[in-house]
Structures are given as structure tokens and as C-alpha cells.
Amino acid sequence: MQTTTARLTTAGESLTIEEHGAGARGENRACAIRVVLLAAYHDCLIELTYPKVYSSNLGSRDSATGAGDWRYDEFRVTDDGRVIHEIEWASGTETACLSTACR
């Protein structure tokens, strides 16, 4: 199994994207995302794991001061049974978003 990992980390918080390969040449690829966030009262960490990701989108116009505070999140189920989890963070007038579709 081949694994490719991309990781962003700050004080215990992290965003990890892993791509795993199986098969003789690692040709059967799968993506997983793990997000670790500091809780609202800074007393623990919250871990979100998406083990089999079909699509993802992470966007922020300005992340110089971090993603900001968790504004809201939403779960939806698509017609083909995939779960979409969207999270929006806010920092001043800027927003950051993470959207994943997984099963």
C-alpha cells in the first residue's frame, strides 16, 4: 500500500489529507481527510475523520490569521447515498469553507 500525506498543523489543530494506493502498482487510489480542531472553550480537541472521500473543497481568501470561529455546519445525503458535510468558519469579514462528500 502506498500513502501520500499532506498535513497542516498549528498547536494541536491539523488538517490531514491522505491518499492510499492498493494493488500491484498502487493504482487503486482512495482519499481520506482528518480534521482536528480546538473546541470552543479551548479545553479539548474535536476530531472529524472522513475515511473514503469522493470529493472535497477547501477554500479561504485569506488564512493569514487562521480559519476563525466555526460559524455553522450542515450534513446532507445525496441521491446516491453519499454524505456531504459543509463547514464554514468566520474571522472578521473573511470566511473559510470545507466541503467533503464521503460514504
Summarize the SSE layout with pairings:
Elements: E1 2-10, E2 13-22, E3 28-38, E4 45-60, E5 69-77, E6 83-91, E7 94-102
Antiparallel strand pairs: 1-2, 2-3, 3-4, 4-7, 5-6, 6-7
Which stretches are low in confidence, meaning pLDDT under 50 for 5 or more residues running? none
Largest sheet: 7 strands, antiparallel
Tell me the count of domains: 1
Shape: globular
Description:
- This protein is mostly beta strands.
- The protein has one domain.
- Helices cover 0% and strands 71% of the residues.
- The protein contains no helices and seven strands.
- It has strands at 2-10, 13-22, 28-38, 45-60, 69-77, 83-91, 94-102.
- It has a seven-stranded antiparallel β-sheet with strand order 1-2-3-4-7-6-5, with no helix packed on it.
- Strand 5 (69-77) and strand 6 (83-91) form a beta hairpin.
- It is globular, with a radius of gyration of 15 Å.
- The mean pLDDT is 78.
Name some characteristics of this structure:
mainly beta, 0% helix, 7-stranded antiparallel sheet, 103 residues
